[in-house]
């Protein structure tokens, strides 16, 4: 006799009631794994082995996220993983036999991993696309100045942020400086335990009367987001700025003019951590969208020879509109696709072959989105809201931003066949928007659907995800790549 008090029995009973209700109402098919919101989360009834798998995957993810803080460091870490998994750098003339594994780096800021499939590329491919840039602060071209006995950095912002959330937290300075002679200096300060950090000093409540009338987005203005770079004066005549100039010259052999050709970012220095007594959640910077990127990276690194050629593309600059030649608006990916077609077809290749192959290609644009916040659940319409630990979000935006229904059905079947729990995610009417990478890729006549997982506090310095959702997104990518 089954134990009616067990979590598995309870989940089965609740879902059975929900399914019976749906059938009585006239539904002819069973609901998706977690489409019915009255079902409990997928932590209920999880097997001991699956829980071990989830925890191991989460540990690997946190290790990756601790190092992959920007698009350039993400590319660096991903290439290391790819090489260890047998992937080789792509070049024209390389073998395009089924099972061949390659990576292609675009200007150190974007990356594609791919495995040649059994079918010719003319028959289409599978592409999982996500972005690896995250909201952050960047140094201006001439950033260093002195004020009130401090050396400060002038900054700008990359992506949408709430300015006040970036004050009084430890920031790390990451990036590189390119000199006129073509040499590059890499800089990473603030991630090691004994490194100094950079902090934007907020105003104490004792003296902030003049700021209390500001709206929350303007508590600190964008031009006020300047972190402390130093304080000690060089000598009686020269202040803190002069000492920082000397430090840059002596430590990195760079001058102030070299900072004009630099890409230096200030990112939260927090290490990823578990959240709560039960350790079911992860807090980390940059989960939008390196969470999706990591899930797809792991899926393709572990894949065998797929039927269709499988791509994982990690794009840059999504947070600022897919701009530049490393963003999704560039022709980079289509150019790479064309090179592979040329390698397979030789002199028979023509442009119409490319267009037909792109039309036959299926794409998942993977990006996280806000989940129901327990403090402000009314921000969502509950029946279509994504919940932590309920599985992959199939995004249904409306207003012309959705995948066509037949491709959505194909995706549903894919996840159900792979036993991947999923749910739907739709913003309240008039809030949120459509996909970003997906919009760029659909321009090339590919079928594109958006999915991801819910994350609390997106675009803040420390967002919160579910270990279980992360794991299921990885499984969804694995199923997509091999289907």
Tell me what the CATH architecture of the largest domain is.
3-Layer(aba) Sandwich
Give the DSSP E fraction (strand runs of 2 or more residues): 15-25%
Tell me the structural class.
Answer: alpha/beta
Major β-sheet annotation = 9 strands, mixed
**Cα-to-Cα separation, first versus last residue:** 39 Å
Shape: globular
Radius of gyration (CA) equals 24 Å
Low-pLDDT sequence parts = 1-31
The CATH topology name of the largest domain reads Aminopeptidase
CATH class of the largest domain: Alpha Beta
What is the ordering of alpha helices and beta strands? HHHEEEEEEEEEHEEEHEHHEEEHEHEEEH
Helix content: 25-40%
Number of strands: 20
Number of helices in the DSSP assignment: 10
Going across the major beta sheet, what is the strand order? 1-2-3-13-4-14-18-16-17
User: Mean pLDDT, as a whole number?
Assistant: 90
- The tally of structural domains comes to 3
- CATH superfamily membership of the largest domain: Zn peptidases
Show the helix and strand layout.
Blueprint lengths: L6 H18 L23 H20 L3 H14 L3 E2 L11 E6 L3 E6 L9 E7 L4 E12 L2 E9 L12 E8 L5 E6 L38 E3 L9 H13 L9 E7 L4 E3 L5 E4 L2 H15 L7 E7 L16 H14 L5 H9 L2 E5 L2 E2 L21 E4 L9 H13 L4 E4 L11 H6 L4 E6 L1 E2 L7 E4 H16 L1
Parallel strand pairs: 1-2, 4-13, 4-14, 14-18, 15-19, 16-17
Antiparallel strand pairs: 2-3, 3-13, 5-6, 5-10, 6-9, 7-8, 7-10, 11-12, 12-20, 16-18
Describe this structure in words.
- This protein is an alpha/beta fold and 483 residues long.
- The chain folds into three domains: 1-31; 48-134 and 285-482, Aminopeptidase (3-Layer(aba) Sandwich), CATH 3.40.630.10; 136-268, Aminopeptidase i, Domain 2.
- Helix content is 29%, strand content 22%.
- The chain has helices at 7-24, 48-67, 71-84, 240-252, 287-301, 332-345, 351-359, 405-417, 437-442, 467-482, and strands at 88-89, 101-106, 110-115, 125-131, 136-147, 150-158, 171-178, 184-189, 228-230, 262-268, 273-275, 281-284, 309-315, 362-366, 369-370, 392-395, 422-425, 447-452, 454-455, 463-466.
- α2 (48-67) crosses α10 (467-482) and α6 packs across α7.
- The protein is globular, with a radius of gyration of 24 Å.
- The two termini are 39 Å apart.
């Amino acid at each position: 006799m089954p134990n009616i008090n067990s979590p598995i029995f309870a989940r089965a009973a609740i879902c059975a009631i929900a399914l019976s209700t749906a059938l009585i109402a006239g539904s002819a098919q069973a609901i998706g794994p977690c489409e019915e919101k009255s079902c409990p989360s997928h932590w209920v009834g999880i097997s001991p082995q699956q829980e071990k798998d989830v925890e191991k995957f989460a540990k690997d993810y946190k290790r990756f996220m601790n190092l992959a803080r920007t698009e350039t460091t993400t590319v660096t870490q991903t290439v290391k993983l790819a090489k260890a998994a047998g992937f080789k750098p792509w070049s024209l003339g390389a073998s395009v036999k089924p099972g061949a594994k390659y990576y292609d780096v675009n200007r150190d800021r974007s990356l594609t991993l791919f495995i040649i499939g059994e079918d010719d590329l003319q028959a289409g491919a599978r592409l999982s696309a996500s972005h690896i840039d995250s909201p952050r602060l960047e140094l201006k071209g001439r950033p260093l100045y002195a004020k009130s006995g401090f050396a400060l950095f002038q900054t700008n912002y990359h992506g949408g942020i709430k300015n006040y959330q970036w004050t009084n937290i430890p920031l790390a300075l990451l990036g590189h400086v390119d000199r006129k002679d073509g040499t590059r200096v890499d800089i990473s300060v603030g991630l090691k335990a004994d490194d100094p950090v950079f902090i934007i000093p907020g105003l104490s409540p004792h003296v902030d009367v003049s700021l209390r009338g500001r709206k929350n987005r303007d508590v600190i203005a964008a031009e006020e987001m300047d972190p402390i770079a130093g304080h000690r004066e060089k000598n009686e005549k020269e202040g803190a700025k002069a000492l920082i100039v000397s430090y840059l010259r002596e430590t990195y052999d760079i001058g102030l003019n070299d900072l004009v050709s630099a890409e230096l970012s200030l990112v939260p220095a927090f290490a990823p951590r578990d959240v709560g007594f039960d350790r079911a959640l992860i807090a980390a910077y940059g989960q939008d969208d390196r969470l999706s990127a990591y899930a797809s990276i792991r899926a393709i690194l572990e894949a065998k020879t797929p039927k269709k050629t499988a791509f994982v593309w990690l794009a840059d600059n999504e947070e600022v509109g897919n701009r530049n030649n490393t963003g999704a608006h560039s022709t980079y990916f289509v150019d790479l696709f064309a090179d592979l077609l040329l390698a397979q077809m030789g002199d028979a290749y023509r442009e119409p072959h490319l267009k037909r192959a792109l039309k036959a290609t299926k794409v998942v644009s993977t990006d996280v989105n806000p989940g129901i916040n327990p403090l402000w659940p009314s921000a969502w319409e509950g029946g279509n809201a994504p919940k932590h630990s309920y599985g992959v979000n199939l995004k249904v935006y409306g207003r012309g931003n959705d995948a066509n229904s037949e491709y959505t059905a194909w995706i549903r079947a894919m996840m159900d066949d792979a036993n991947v729990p999923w749910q739907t995610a739709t913003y309240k009417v008039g809030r949120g928007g459509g996909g970003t990478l997906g919009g760029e890729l659909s321009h090339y006549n590919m079928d594109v659907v958006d999915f991801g997982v819910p994350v609390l506090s997106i675009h803040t310095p420390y967002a919160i995800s579910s270990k279980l959702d992360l794991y299921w997104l990885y499984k969804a990518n694995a199923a997509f790549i091999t289907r």
